[in-house]
Amino acid sequence: MTATIAQALAASALDAGEARVLMRHALGVDAAYLIAHGDEALTSAHSTAFDALVARRAAGEPVAYITGVREFFSLEFAVTPAVLIPRPETELLVEWALEKILPSAQARVLDLGTGSGSIAISIAHERPRAQVAAVDCSDAALALASANARRHRLANVAFMSSDWFSALAGRRFDCIVANPPYIAAGDAHLARGDLRFEPAAALASGSDGLDAIRLIVAAAPQYLSAGGWIAFEHGYDQAQRCRRLLQDAGFTQVFSRADLAGIERVSGGRLDATEVKS
Description:
Shape: elongated
Structural class: alpha/beta
Distance between the termini: 73 Å
Number of strands: 9
Number of domains: 2
Helix content: 25-40%
Strand content: 15-25%
Mean pLDDT: 95
CATH architecture of the largest domain: 3-Layer(aba) Sandwich
CATH class of the largest domain: Alpha Beta
């Protein structure tokens, strides 16, 4: 006799929340179903499918890659190993952008290194009058991001291939956002946990993790409108250095914003009219 849903969940030895996500995926049901049918016996096929998912997670594979989806800013996104897994702390960057983009404004927004498109699509979803451009140098990422935009039926976000600003000559934006790679290349965390499975190029950036951020901050004034804003995510111990980079590049109203844990995760600044470069 096969185990019940509740028994299989308890026997999985996984985090309870992760086990439930995998069970839902194996059965093709929602969370309410698991609660209401905990005493229901699994079929042999469902038991085998769940065990296979548990084995993948036990080997370290991220749940998001196993299920192929991750929720971000109350939207569901398809994810693959070609892109970073959207994380809750990155929602801080979206929240900041929404504060700067008035609902009535036809703002021009740029998302650098869009990956799954989670940042760009979340902004486009919340600000339908804005025109959001999202770039990435990975064709696989762009294909996935485009599919995610179609999933949410958004017509105000466009994706294009670009190595940061390389394909954007002559364009200016009112707001630039980015979640660039910011981990030091030799950081031991790259060989641990979920990071082992995520694309290295989207995680590490030079010996101190700031190579991509330096490039973005230095180039951004050429692509911002007068009074435009930039903000980006960075590492837990990089806020002070990021503020200095912004100040050195001529940005004013430089800031860092902390997440719910009190860790400064996002920094940015404003480009005054006198700093606009042709």
